[in-house]
Amino acid sequence: MANKGPAYGMSRDVQSKIEKKYDDELEDRLVEWIVAQCGAAVGRPERGRLGFQVWLKNGIVLSRLVNSLYPDGSKPVKIPDAPPTMVFKQMEQIAQFLKAAEDYGVVKTDMFQTVDLFEAKDMAAVQRTLMALGSLAVTKNDGNYHGDPNWFMK
Fold first, then answer.
1. Which segments does the entry list as coiled coil (predicted)?
2. How far is CA 3 from CA 20, 81, 89, 105, in A?
3. N- to C-terminal Cα distance for the chain?
4. pLDDT tens-digit profile of 39-54?
């Protein structure tokens, strides 16, 4: 990830439009679901886009989330004992989550790109992916979903 200076002109306009799609109320609902689904051990992020991004950035919370949607003994993502500190390992962990979410049934058009989360380029896309995953979990009704079913559309 290269250091980037401030955006100007059209680049700034495009980034501004992307940032306006981020929903703070949706963030609260997603945090509540992730904590209900994974347990209090995942902690809680600081409020706001940056806090949400930092909380999810290393991929561990996302991996725990997708693993919690599967029955014991068939967890799709391996979670390391210590959270990864190297950039490529963190991005690899996010990529494993994305693969597991796709295998779970989230369609490609609802998926974010690793860079969207890792560099906070499009946190609204991250929200869309988590909403799609939650909606699928509620719809499957296989007993692995925890939380209020009204948080997501079937």
1. none
2. 23, 30, 20, 35
3. 38
4. 999 999 999 999 999 9
Q: What whole-number distance in Å separates Cα of residue 153 and Cα of residue 131?
A: 9
Q: Angle CA(45)–CA(64)–CA(53) in degrees, nearest 5?
A: 30
pTM: 0.87
Distance separating alpha carbons of residues 55 and 151, to the nearest angstrom: 21
pLDDT tens digit sequence for 1-10: 455 666 667 6
Q: How far is CA 89 from the centre of its chain?
A: 16
Question: Domain residue spans in the chain?
Answer: 23-151
Phi and psi torsions of 43, nearest 5°:
75, -170
The CB-side HSE value for 64 (13 A sphere, CA atoms) comes to 19
Give tens-digit pLDDT for 102-150: 999 999 999 999 999 999 989 999 999 999 999 999 999 888 999 888 8
Range 23-151 has CATH code 1.10.418.10: yes
